[in-house]
Amino acid sequence: MRVSVIGCGHLGIPHAAAMAEIGHEVIGVDLDQAKIDHLNAGECPIYEDGLPELLSTHTSTGRLRFTTSLAEAAEFADIHFLAVGTPIDADGRSYDTGQVFGAARALAPHLTRPTVVIGKSTVTVGTSRDLGALLARLSPAGEDVEVVWNPEFLREGHAIDDTLRPDRIVVGVPSARAEDAVREVYAPLLANGIPLFVTDPATAELIKGAANAYLGMKISFINGVADMCTAAGADVQQLTEAIGLDPRIGRGGLNAGPGYGGGCLPKDVRAFTASARTLGATEAATMLRAAEEVNESRPTAALRLIEQTLGRPVDGLRITVWGASFKAGTDDVRESPALAIAALMHQRAATVTVHDPHAVPTALRRHPELDYCESLEDSVKAAELIVLATEWPHFREADPKALAPLVADQVLVDLRNLIDADAWRMAGWTVRQLGRPAQE
């Protein structure tokens, strides 16, 4: 099939590359001409594992190309994916769907034949209904333009794998014709046994919000329990392994750490909380808000653990933070817990240097007040404390013996429970891990 992907960001670029990978002819659309030029040259403006290779492969064959012209995309494609951003609104609680409706308004005059527009962006329930009415009113094809909602469930750092090998595909469809179009575009994936979950549009919109809200609550739950373990001298890792064996709970996502971040999870929990309140589900809203509050408290909780380990405030200290992206596998630093902790320590008059294998340039743009280092070894020189705040294997594999002569004090606070603490202690380091008893 010929498909377009409108919006070339963290969602749209991986989706466009994946659609080309499964055999479609794809045109990506974005307003940023410089970005389009880079993409057409096979140059990826974001880091996502496996994406540069797919982008280079399919732009070189011509199966994937990019443009700023919606007219060109409308003439070319039979299916249009909407993958524009839906940032949190000015109220801090709901989605700003301006880009979704703006893209639809700009596309509508060019839709002269029956087509299906498939929304990928995360939106408030009811958006697909309103978008369908808008397109029917403004498009020359009228009601022959239908809107399907097909929420993404991508984990940043795994976006390509999650697109090509998802655990399910959810679509909210208004008609049998629209469902047929979805089945055709995803036919190569469905042939591999991936389940297609067909619902009405409102249910599909709520499924995405509910999934991320539940994940946020699960993360906040175990982080709250980690605080209890710290106070009690218990071990959150052992606790997590034990309760994760219960199939009603499960181990996935049940990892104590400095909190959830990124461009999706925080805003999705906020917006789902707001939706619950709007729909009159006040008890659900209260529960969801509690999960948010736990997550919001993580930088302060991390600082408390750091200062307990040091036995003094951080002011005046030289501190290295390992990790800038909100998680491993991406250069996305939106709402990064690692950077929030680094910024908090900077505000407390510490000198903070940040190192990340891929996210230094994006972090520098958001937090220019911090110092940055491209090399792991250089990042720890003269440091009096290292804070490990992300899960890159790059840090798990660091050699404590080789690093020891470079630092001023061999002190490491591991907020991700990532390293083999015993190996580091044997090399002479003082190590403290989140939710675990203090050991020397």
UniProtKB/TrEMBL annotation:
PANTHER family linked: UDP-GLUCOSE 6-DEHYDROGENASE TUAD
NCBIfam families: NDP-sugDHase
EC number: 1.1.1.22
Keywords associated with the record: NAD, Oxidoreductase
Gene Ontology MF: a single term: oxidoreductase activity
Protein name stated in the entry: UDP-glucose 6-dehydrogenase
Pathway: Nucleotide-sugar biosynthesis; UDP-alpha-D-glucuronate biosynthesis; UDP-alpha-D-glucuronate from UDP-alpha-D-glucose: step 1/1
Record's keyword annotation contains Signal: no
Keyword Membrane: no
Segments forming domain UDP-glucose/GDP-mannose dehydrogenase C-terminal: 320-421
InterPro entries named among the record's database cross-references: 6-PGluconate_DH-like_C_sf, NAD(P)-bd_dom_sf, UDP-Glc/GDP-Man, UDP-Glc/GDP-Man_DH_C, UDP-Glc/GDP-Man_DH_C_sf, UDP-Glc/GDP-Man_DH_dimer, UDP-Glc/GDP-Man_DH_N, UDPglc_DH_bac
Pfam families in UniProt: UDPG_MGDP_dh (PF00984), UDPG_MGDP_dh_C (PF03720), UDPG_MGDP_dh_N (PF03721)
Family affiliation: Belongs to the UDP-glucose/GDP-mannose dehydrogenase family.
Highest classification ranks of the organism: Bacteria, Bacillati, Actinomycetota, Actinomycetes, Kitasatosporales
Coiled coil region boundaries: none
Catalytically driven reaction(s): UDP-alpha-D-glucose + 2 NAD(+) + H2O = UDP-alpha-D-glucuronate + 2 NADH + 3 H(+)
